[in-house]
Amino acid sequence: MWEINLHKECKKDNLAEYGFRKCGAEYRLNIPLYKYKHTPVISVNFVVSIFDNYIGYDVIDNNSGELYTHLYNRMYSNPKHNKVLKKIIKELNIHLGRMKNAGIISDYRKVR
Question: What is the pTM of this model?
Answer without folding.
Answer: 0.91
